[in-house]
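> call design_seq(struct)
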């Protein structure tokens, strides 16, 4: 017998703009998202990441809140998703970044974090100029969530439509 997965609660204040009150649309069969899995589902030009975290199923944009890389091809461990591009880490239970990208930059509260490198490697700061400035001023936002519900064998997501 299979059990119905739970839906992860949305952290306070982090529902995606336009998603409150939007119609629920079929996204994926429950069987296609076992615990620990992530999948991209697309509605028109909106790519949504479905993640079966240790807290339940969550739906966010499939765009890293740093420089928009697809988180769906990153790694999920419990509630923590790792971005494949600059090693940023995000907690799907809280919506908060838990590790800044290697490029550094501003966190959600506007505090600057310097460039860093994984253990055993030297950080690669940009030569001064516009690129370095762009990275320094890039703000890593908190995640934004779409409401999820389970209906029978399907996962449904409420996404704003044009
Ligand atoms: S795009 Fe994800 S950490 Fe940079």
């Amino acid at each position: 017998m299979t059990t119905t997965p739970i839906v992860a609660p949305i952290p306070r204040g982090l529902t995606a703009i336009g998603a409150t009150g939007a119609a629920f649309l079929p996204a994926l069969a429950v069987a296609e998202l076992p615990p620990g899995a992530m999948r991209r589902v697309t509605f028109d030009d909106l790519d949504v990441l479905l993640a079966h975290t240790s807290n339940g199923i969550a739906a966010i944009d499939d765009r890293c809140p740093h420089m928009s890389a697809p988180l769906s091809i990153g790694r999920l461990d419990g509630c923590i998703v790792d971005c494949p591009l600059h090693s940023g880490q995000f907690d799907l239970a809280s919506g908060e970044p838990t590790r800044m990208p290697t490029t550094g930059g501003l966190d959600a509260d506007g505090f600057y974090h310097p460039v860093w490198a994984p253990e055993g490697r030297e950080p690669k700061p940009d030569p001064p100029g516009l690129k370095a400035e762009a990275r320094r001023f890039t703000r890593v936002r908190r995640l934004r969530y779409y409401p999820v519900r389970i209906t029978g064998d399907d996962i449904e997501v409420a996404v704003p439509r044009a």
